[in-house]
Design goal:
By secondary structure, the chain is α/β, with parallel strands linked by helices. It is built from 18 helices and seven strands. Helix 5 packs across helix 6 and helix 9 packs antiparallel against helix 10. The two termini are 50 Å apart.
Length: 348
């Protein structure tokens, strides 16, 4: 299998050994492979073979966007690597690629529409995003990589306000276990700003973090041992952060402009005392960004808190405490991310 650092010459000589087996090998391949039902164009100028699937597409768009393919086709092409096809079809080169057919199909759809045109905004699946990043990185299609990393940054943001906005959203094509794949994609491409949020979400997976993420071809993708260890430590740190927030929430200071300081201080003390009887998952919740309004409403049924102190507990104080946790999130996950939290610092 070709590594991400493979050059056009590497793939040329590796696949060339297959080509030099001659007509018998070509005939055997024809019997063992099948044409893709979506991405086979009779007037195509290039056949790509992935696994047991052949794709006949146009080499022009690939050459235009991939220095890898541009270099590949600048090399002399052995005659035995040309395929004539059916009568009347022009010969075209055949290039075996050591990729999953599903992954390659996702990438080729970017360059040719297949049987259906994509119009308007389409939410990509995780498998599509992952394939485009991995193969885009391998074949030096930088624009494809950056476009899909930009999409991931919306789901795994690096600033606190965007993170809060994504909490209420549901992306039907992404599941919690996809965070494992996002961590590995960030490692592959050096997109370190994705890591804190992705690792944090991995910390909440339970046993699934060990079982890993199942790919469409049945293989499983797991975290590296180092990142798995970070998640074990990070999980404990997230619980500690939640406990700290819980106790700081009801510290003895009222809101600015409080109308009844003595009364509100008494209620704050009562709420703090109530934490001792609260469920452990409330105090040491892995979701350190959880809202506190329901707890306040339950314990202050008579609404003794003034309006300003109530708003403080509903929005201002939890956001301040949670933002402080966000600032140190990379440290909690055992990593360093350059520029993390700079936006919050500039606004403070």
């Amino acid at each position: 299998m070709l590594s991400s650092s493979s050059t056009a010459e590497d793939i040329w000589f590796e696949t060339g050994s297959n080509a030099r087996r001659g007509a018998d090998a070509s005939a055997d391949r024809d019997k063992s492979t099948k044409r893709d039902t979506e991405l086979w164009f009779d007037d195509g100028s290039l056949v790509l073979v992935a696994g047991d699937v052949e794709f006949k597409v146009y080499r022009g768009p690939l050459i235009a966007h991939s220095p890898f393919f541009k270099d590949l086709f600048s090399l002399p092409q052995p005659a035995e690597r040309e395929r004539s096809g059916h009568e009347g079809e022009l010969p075209c080169p055949v290039v075996p690629l050591y990729d999953s057919p599903d992954d390659l199909r996702h990438v080729l759809r970017v360059f040719v529409p297949g049987h259906s045109l994509r119009a308007g905004s389409v939410e990509p699946s995780y498998d599509e995003v992952s394939a485009c990043i991995r193969l885009g990185h391998k074949y030096q299609i930088d624009e494809l990589v950056q476009r899909n990393l930009a999409y991931l940054s919306k789901l795994y943001p690096s600033d606190f306000d965007s993170f809060l906005a994504t909490r209420g959203q549901r992306y039907s094509t992404f599941t919690p276990t996809h965070a494992i794949g996002v961590v590995n994609l960030a490692r592959l491409t050096g997109a370190h700003s994705l890591l804190p949020t992705a690792l944090m979400r991995c910390c909440t997976l339970g046993a699934d973090i060990v079982h890993g993420l199942e790919r469409p071809d049945g293989s499983r993708e797991t975290l590296s041992p180092e990142d798995l260890g970070r998640c074990f430590v990070g999980r404990a740190r997230m619980a500690q952060a939640s406990a700290r927030i819980a106790h700081q929430m009801f510290r003895q200071s009222v809101a600015r402009g409080c109308r009844h300081p003595a009364c509100c201080l008494r209620v704050l003390q009562r709420l703090l005392n109530e934490l001792g009887d609260a469920r452990i998952e409330l105090v040491s919740n892995l979701d350190w960004c959880m809202p506190w309004v329901s707890f306040v409403e339950e314990k202050d049924e008579e609404r003794e808190l003034c309006g300003k102190c109530y708003k403080m507990l509903e929005e201002d104080r939890p956001r301040q405490l949670q933002r402080e946790v966000w600032q140190i999130l990379p440290t909690m996950m055992g990593i360093s991310v350059e520029g993390w939290g700079d936006k919050a610092k500039s606004e403070s």
